[in-house]
Write the structure tokens for this entry.
Amino acid sequence: MAVDDTSNVDAGRDFIRDIVQADLESGRHRSVVTRFPPEPNGYLHIGHAKSIGLNFGIAEEFGGHCHLRFDDTNPVKEEQEYIDAIEADVRWLGYDWGPHLYHASDYFEQLYEWAELLIRAGKAYVDDQSQEEIRTNRGTLTEPGRNSPFRERSVEENLDLFRRMRAGEFPNGARVLRAKIDMASGNINLRDPVLYRILHATHPRTGDAWKIYPSYDYAHGQSDAIEHVTHSICTLEFEDHRPLYDWFIENLPVPSRPRQYEFARLNLSYTILSKRVLTRLVQDGHVSGWDDPRMPTLAGLRRRGVPPSALRDFVRRIGVAKANSVVDVQMLDFAIRETLNRSALRRMAVLKPLRVVIENYPEGRTEELEAANHPDDAGAGTRRIRFGREIFIEQDDFMENPPKKFFRLSPGAEVRLRYAYFITCREVKKNAEGEVVELRCSYDPATRGGNAPDGRKVKATIHWVSAQDAVSAEVRLYNPLFTRPDPDAANFSSELNPNSLEVLSDAKLEPAIVADNAAGPAQFERLGYFVRDRDSTPGRPVFSRTIGLRDTWAKVSAGG
Ligand code: ATP
Ligand code: MG
């Protein structure tokens, strides 16, 4: 798969929307019905956001409906926690299924009746072969399969056995119900696919009522048909299942005839979008939970401070294609930055503090300075920030022996403190280990607000927080979970990035950040976008970096 910048796709127009439009124009359908059909065996991830955006988006644009249907056919892996999380995540993304909330389990009785119908028509049979035998007798891509020795059972025997399967007379795996199609078919999906398996398990909705459960292939299309779904949109791996999808629709008295269309799933660089792997990351403790901000889950992205509008925007930009590709994760970062740049209030915080004492600033004096909340939005207003004799600056903004192009603070150098004064470094204090622990500086009172009346320039503007007011906080920085752009799902644990989480335990925040109580992230000037995490306690705020700023260096050199 090639890494592919799909930003050239005409956003809002794609082959599926073209099909829908043509079907409406030709009168094949009077209105469009789509569905988003998650299996509640994990949390939704950003790949699902693509499918949600497509299904709900089409329904919205063409005045139809999109159903939320839980594909709850495997009680062994499915849980109420996942059902609740999926509903919350779809809502958070900004979509509404209205009254159209369904479950494949709503149709278990109907699906069962249709299975009996297939048996009576000689189109399904109970097979006593073991799972292993079924697998070996299925054949390969180049060799046909072998008929089961149980394939020619009488209708009566099949009905009797199938009813006893339902009644719970047999243990797990003892028998299955299969469609009788063609063991020599070139399409392996048509080699007598399994319709029902025996599973003694408690289902989140139907409890212990059922001892047999339908397969995905058998449940899916019929559920679509029952709901009068017009366009059943799924990912490319189901393309080979489409003949089977159609076989059921043709051989059963279903109330409508949905059609299946396939599109390319979302793959993102440095990311694995597989619920199996994401479940392992959680269960093996590689992350703190499904909503760990490093996870590509919607819950993780939400906790990281990513606005839902940025995800909708991202999904629109990547478009919908028929060939698999990998989207550069920077496209996602770009969409997040763009959204936050517009909405986030600007604040000052120091992540790795270095104390600065301004020697010629009178002891005990403080003053308030005015700072803009948003450079491009005067309506966002201003705030007062306190300045005093002691402040914190970023350790990285000072170098004792700077290289030529380093314009920030160094012995003898002058810089601008954002919204405040010019300061010059006079003296460097070190501890016994030789580490810089404090700078002694002087300020020029004539530069209040950040400009010199004599017109002299400085090459850098740095941020700061007054030591008197600063609120100490924990700040968490996140890096990609995987070290390689194309992590291998089969081997993911050896490709985990050991530095995906960096915790800074003594960051200094201007008080407004903590007082804001804002739902969304703020921009910490020159650092990125940060959001309060739910691990915060009253005495100990915790902030997470949603995303960094693109080009910190350029901004600094340009003088902010
Ligand atoms: P996984 O393979 O991670 O287990 P899944 O496809 O089995 O995911 P489902 O709950 O069945 O998960 O997915 C619900 C819907 O979301 C399906 O229609 C599926 O095609 C779609 N979907 C899943 N992953 C992606 C993806 N990466 N990109 C686009 N659509 C996706
Ligand atoms: Mg699936």
Summary: The CA atoms of residues 5 and 464 lie 38 Å apart.
